[in-house]
């Protein structure tokens, strides 16, 4: 009966003598061998099971290295695969005194394959966690031991994690100033008062570097009495984020200091106009007590919509590629006082519209506007008061010159000539002042129509010949000869060209040549007026189109002029939709140009 039990056992049983020869095997043992091989009597055990050898009459196993499994050997499965068997060895003595070895094989192939699949999955998870820099750890509260993924140890600069207790590593490396708070938060989770512990702390990485970590911890197992026995958590390195937050905080503090100490009113607004950040100067400007502008909307101040133009300007900026603009707006304070404000508006766009911010800088220009109005009134009054007497003086001088005729002495003729020329010059000054006053007041109109450029330029050169001859300068026209058409006001365009020609003649060297060229630049017609002479300094170039600007030079200040010609020309060109500019190489050549789109 004993032999029957052995024969039907699911375990492979081999009986081997002291020399290693098989003296018995059961059916399960035969089934473990590849097809065509049998454990017949007399076969040597090492031929059938190469991992087993005989030394001094006893069997020895050369086990393969598989963690968590002991005394395992691999057998060919006959189809290219392997069968894994767990081996146990024993001996017994027969009645005759002969010692026999017993080999017991248990097929653990399915268990090994499942274990390998699990380890392969663990490797894949470790690779994924390592790539995402997420460390996973588990703590057994009963034993006080912890295990963690390779990625967890790598976050701490530990490459060899074998045999390390992750709980001990955490306690040894956490910053002393952070440990108490983190452990208190973990205790809340362990006691079940919160679902999870989410903490931020510093850990020592390597020998002396401190880095910020963020961990999330949960209880995954409790005993029958509800006590936590197993914890599972993740940890990530958030040092770059913490550094960015610290930098953002420093920048915010810097911005607040900048705003607080700025000599002008400055504020940061949300897209709906709500004040997010502002300085003390804003309260003084808008007439509100300190602390009452927060959470108010910029375009709803004083319970009116006096600043609604700013909101409209914001929408215009958002719909374009322009990020900044300047507007002037009249504002009524809560006490009824009206002021004029110059507003510099910048839009800081973000992908999410609601995160877009507005930065505004504001200056009270009420006094400036008042002085400008006084200046305009003064200029207009003086100009009008001078124009009529000047016309009378000029007319009287012409009549007097004609009446005396050739009978005038040389001295009288010279005085009459000087008086006549200066009355003309003074009349031109008054005319420039009136034109400029009208332009700045918005009372100067242009009538844009289709204008033929070539003939207009020729006629302007012809009309200015006496002035050019006065300075002994010749004017040469080059470029296009066939008709060229642009949209402009013919009279105003001629006025601009007259100014450029007169300037070129005045500042050319005696006997020099002024070159006028009509050409094309892309889709625009470009008229350039060039001359030699002293040219334009860099300092003067920065304000050349500003009113009353003249170059402080003994060669140029002696020339006649009010310093308004170029300012008027720029206003006229801008009003007609054109452009004006210049290039100058001192003492070589200076070119002023205007351009208008073809039509």
List the topology elements.
Elements lengths: L1 H6 L4 E5 L5 E4 L1 H5 L13 H4 L3 E4 L2 E4 L10 E5 L5 E12 L5 E9 L1 H24 L1 E7 L4 E4 L1 H6 L10 H8 L2 H15 L6 E9 L3 E14 L5 E10 L1 H23 L3 E6 L4 E4 L1 H7 L21 H11 L5 E9 L5 E11 L8 E8 L1 H39 L5 H32 L7 E4 H11 L1 H6 L3 E6 L5 E4 L1 H17 L6 E9 L2 E8 L6 H4 L23 H11 L3 E7 L3 E9 L2
Parallel strand pairs: 19-21
Antiparallel strand pairs: 1-2, 1-7, 3-4, 5-6, 6-7, 8-9, 8-12, 10-11, 11-12, 13-14, 13-17, 15-16, 16-17, 18-20, 21-22, 22-24, 23-24
Helix pairs in contact: 11-12, 12-17, 13-15, 15-17
Helix content: 25-40%
Q: How is the biggest beta sheet arranged? A: 5 strands, antiparallel
Number of domains: 5
Strand order of the largest sheet: 2-1-7-6-5
Under CATH, the topology of the largest domain can be stated as: Heat Shock Protein 90
CATH superfamily of the largest domain: Histidine kinase-like ATPase, C-terminal domain
Give an overview in words:
The chain folds into 5 domains: 112 residues, PAS domain (Beta-Lactamase, 2-Layer Sandwich), CATH 3.30.450; 109 residues, Beta-Lactamase, CATH 3.30.450; 111 residues, Beta-Lactamase (2-Layer Sandwich), CATH 3.30.450; 73 residues; 149 residues, Histidine kinase-like ATPase, C-terminal domain (Heat Shock Protein 90). About 1% of the residues have low confidence. It has a 5-stranded antiparallel sheet. Strands 9-8-12-11-10 form a 5-stranded antiparallel sheet, sandwiched between helices. A 5-stranded antiparallel sheet has the order 14-13-17-16-15, sandwiched between helices. A hairpin with an 8-residue loop joins β16 and β17. It is α+β, with helices and mostly antiparallel strands.
């Amino acid at each position: 009966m004993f032999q029957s039990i052995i024969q039907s056992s699911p375990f492979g049983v081999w009986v081997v003598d002291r020399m290693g020869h098989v003296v018995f095997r059961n059916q399960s043992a035969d089934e473990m061998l590849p097809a065509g091989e049998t454990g017949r009597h007399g076969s040597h055990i090492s031929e059938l099971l190469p991992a087993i050898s005989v030394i001094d009459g006893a069997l020895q196993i050369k086990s393969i290295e598989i963690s968590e499994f002991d005394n395992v050997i691999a057998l060919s499965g006959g189809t290219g695969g392997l069968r894994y068997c767990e081996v146990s060895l024993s001996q017994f003595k027969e009645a005759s005194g002969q010692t026999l070895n017993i080999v017991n094989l248990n097929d653990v192939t399915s268990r090994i394959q499942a274990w390998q699949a699990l380890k392969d999955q663990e490797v894949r998870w470790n690779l994924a966690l390592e790539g995402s820099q997420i460390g996973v750890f588990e703590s057994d509260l009963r034993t006080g031991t912890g295990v963690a993924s390779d990625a967890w140890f790598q976050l701490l600069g530990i490459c060899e994690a074998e045999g390390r207790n992750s709980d001990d590593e955490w306690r040894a490396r956490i910053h002393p100033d952070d440990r108490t708070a983190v452990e208190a938060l973990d205790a809340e989770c362990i006691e079940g008062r919160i679902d999870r512990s989410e903490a931020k702390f510093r850990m020592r990485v390597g020998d002396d570097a401190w880095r910020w970590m963020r961990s999330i911890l949960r209880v995954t197992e409790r005993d029958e009495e509800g006590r936590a026995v197993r914890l599972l958590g993740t940890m990530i390195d958030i040092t770059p984020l913490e550094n960015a937050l610290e930098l953002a905080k420093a920048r915010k503090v810097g911005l607040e200091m900048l705003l607080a100490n700025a000599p002008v009113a400055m504020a940061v607004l949300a897209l709906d106009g709500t004040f997010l950040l502002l300085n003390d100067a804003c309260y003084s400007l808008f007439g509100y007590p300190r602390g009452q502008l927060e959470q108010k909307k910029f375009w709803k101040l004083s319970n009116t919509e006096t600043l609604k133009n700013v909101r409209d300007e914001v929408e215009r900026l958002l719909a374009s590629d322009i990020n900044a603009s300047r507007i002037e707006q009249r504002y009524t304070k809560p006490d009824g006082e009206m002021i004029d404000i110059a507003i510099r508006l910048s839009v800081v766009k973000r992908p999410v519209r609601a995160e877009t911010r507005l930065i505004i800088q504001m200056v009270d220009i009420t006094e400036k506007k008042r002085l400008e109005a006084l200046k305009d009134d003064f200029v207009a009054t003086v100009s009008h008061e001078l124009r009529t007497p000047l016309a009378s003086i000029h007319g009287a001088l012409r009549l007097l010159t004609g009446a005396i005729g050739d009978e005038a002495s040389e001295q009288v003729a010279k005085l009459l000539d000087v008086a006549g020329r200066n009355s003309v010059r003074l009349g031109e000054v008054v005319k420039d002042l009136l034109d400029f006053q009208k332009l700045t007041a918005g009372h100067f109109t242009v009538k844009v129509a289709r204008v033929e450029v070539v003939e207009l330029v020729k006629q302007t050169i012809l009309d200015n010949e006496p002035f050019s001859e006065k300075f002994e300068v010749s004017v040469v026209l080059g470029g296009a000869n066939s008709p060229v058409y642009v949209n402009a006001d013919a009279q105003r365009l001629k006025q601009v060209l007259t100014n450029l020609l007169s300037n070129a003649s005045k500042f050319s060297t005696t006997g020099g040549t002024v070159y006028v060229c009509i050409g094309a630049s892309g889709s625009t017609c470009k008229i350039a007026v060039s001359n030699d002479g002293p040219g334009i300094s860099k300092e003067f170039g920065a304000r050349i189109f500003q009113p009353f600007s003249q170059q402080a030079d003994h060669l140029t200040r002696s020339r006649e002029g009010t310093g308004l010609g170029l300012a008027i020309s720029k206003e006229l060109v801008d009003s007609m939709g054109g452009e004006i500019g210049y290039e100058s190489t001192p003492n070589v050549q200076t070119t002023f140009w205007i351009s208008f789109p073809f039509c």
